[in-house]
Amino acid sequence: MCSFCNQNKITGQAYQPTPFEVERILDKAASDLGERTKNAEIAFFGGSFTAIDRTYMLSLLDAAKKFRDKFCGIRISTRPDYIDKEILDILKSYGVTSIELGAQSMSDDVLLANDRGHSAEDVFKSSQLIKSYGISLGLQMMTGLYKSDIQKDLYTAETFVKINPDTVRIYPTVIMKDTKLAELYLNGEYIPYCLEKSVNLCSKLIELFEKNNIKIIRLGLHYSDSLVNNSYGDNYHPAFKELCENKLFYDKFIEKANEFSNPNEIKEVIVNSKSLSKFLGQRKSNVKKLNELGYNFSVCFDDTLQKYELYLK
Predict the structure, then answer these.
(1) 129 vs 122: CA distance, rounded Å
(2) Percent residues over pLDDT 90 in the chain
(3) Which of 158, 164, 185, 194 has CA atoms 20 to 30 A from the CA of 135?
(4) Confidence grade of residue 10 (pLDDT, cut at 50, 70, 90)
(5) Any idea what the CATH number is for the domain that residue 185 is in?
(6) pLDDT surpassing 80 at residue 253
(7) What DSSP state is assigned to residue 265?
(8) pLDDT tens digits, residue range 63-113?
(9) pTM strictly above 0.70
C-alpha cells in the first residue's frame, strides 16, 4: 500500500458496493436528476478500478451499462500500471468515456519513496494508450508528498501539460492516521507543507493549467468528518480552492501594480463579474491587505475577460 493511503478513513466507507447496489443507486439518481442525467456521469472512484478482481469489475460495469444511455458517460479512476490494451478493450466495450490516472508525481524518487509501485514512464505509456482509444484522459497529482518539494511538484504539473490531459485533479497531501506517512510524520522524518505554502503553490498550478486549457475538476479533498478526525497537520482546508483563487488574484494585482509609479495612480480594478468574490478574497481579505499597502480602488466588470484575468487603470 502506498505511504499516504487509508481509503476507508478518507471516504468514510469500508465496504465494496454490490452490482445490485450500483443499479439501485443509478436508478435513484436517474429518477432524481431527470433530464439532468444528460450532463451527469456514472463514476467509479475511491480506488484503482482496473486493479480490483476482474469478475467483480465486470459485474460493476454490467450494472452501469444498463444505465449508460441515460447518463453522458462512465468515468473511472485507476493506477497507471493497470492500463493495457486488453483492459482498454473491455472498458471501451462497456462505454467507459473517461479514465483518470492516479499519477501523483512524475518524479521517480518520489514515487519510490511513497511506495507507489509504478514509474513516471508508466504514466506516459498509459496516457498515450488511453488517448489512442479516444477515451478522455484525466491525471491526478498530489503536492507535498514525502521526498517531494516545490520544484518537483512544479515539474509534475509541467510534465502533465506536456502529456496534455483533458482534466486534472490536484490534491495537497493530507496525512491520514494509520499510514506509513503518519509514522514518518510522527518520527519527524516527514515535514508536510503548511497551508500557506500549499496555497502559494497551488495558486500557480491553477494559472499553469488554465493557460494551457486543461480543466481542473478538483482542487483539494472533499470534506468529511472522517477525514478531519483522522488526519494530522494543518494542510487541509474545506475551501482550499477558494483560498488558492484568492491568492492568484492577489499576486496578479501586485504584479500589475508594480507597473505603476505609486498606489494612488490605480483607480480601478477590472475583472469578470463572475470572479468578483475570488478577487475580493474570503471576508474581503484581499481588499483589506491591499488597502493596508496603500491601494484604494473601485471594482469594475468586463465579462469579456477570462475567469482569472485582471486589469488595473
Answers:
(1) 11
(2) 88
(3) 158
(4) very low
(5) 3.20.20.70
(6) yes
(7) G
(8) 999 999 999 999 999 999 999 999 999 999 999 999 999 999 999 999 999
(9) yes
* Same domain assignment for residues 101 and 211: yes
The pLDDT assigned to 46 comes to: 75
216 located within any domain: yes
**Count of positions (residues) in the chain:** 313
Residues 131 and 163: their CA atoms lie apart, in Å, by 10
Do residue 194 and residue 162 come from a single domain?
yes
Q: What angle do CA 201, 120, 53 make, to 5 degrees?
A: 110
Q: Are residues 35 and 80 in the same domain?
A: yes
**H runs (alpha helix) in the chain:** 7-11, 19-33, 54-65, 85-93, 108-113, 120-132, 150-163, 180-186, 195-211, 225-229, 240-257, 276-280, 285-292
225: pLDDT strictly greater than 90: no
Q: Do residues 97 and 63 lie in contact, with contact meaning Cβ atoms separated by under 8 Å?
A: no
Q: Which three cell numbers stand for residue 226?
A: 472522517
Domain boundary among 211, 238, 265: 238
CA dist 113 and 147 (Å) reads 7
| pLDDT tier for residue 245 given thresholds of 50, 70 and 90 | very high
| 152 and 264 co-located in one domain | no
> Looking only at Cα atoms, what is the longest distance across the chain?
69
- Report the domain count for the chain: 2
pLDDT score for 11: 47
Q: 2 lies in a domain? A: no
Residue with cell string 482496473: 50
| Final residue before a domain boundary, out of 204, 238, 272 | 238
Amino acid type, 221? L
Statement to judge: residues 191 and 140 lie in one domain: yes
Q: What is the DSSP string of 234-261?
A: S---TTHHHHHHHHHHHHHHHHHHTTSS
- The answer to whether position 183 is within a domain reads yes
DSSP type of residue 137: E
pLDDT of 300 reads: 97
Do 259 and 234 sit in the same domain of this protein? no
Same domain as 80, residue 186: yes
Find the domain containing 260 and state its range.
246-312
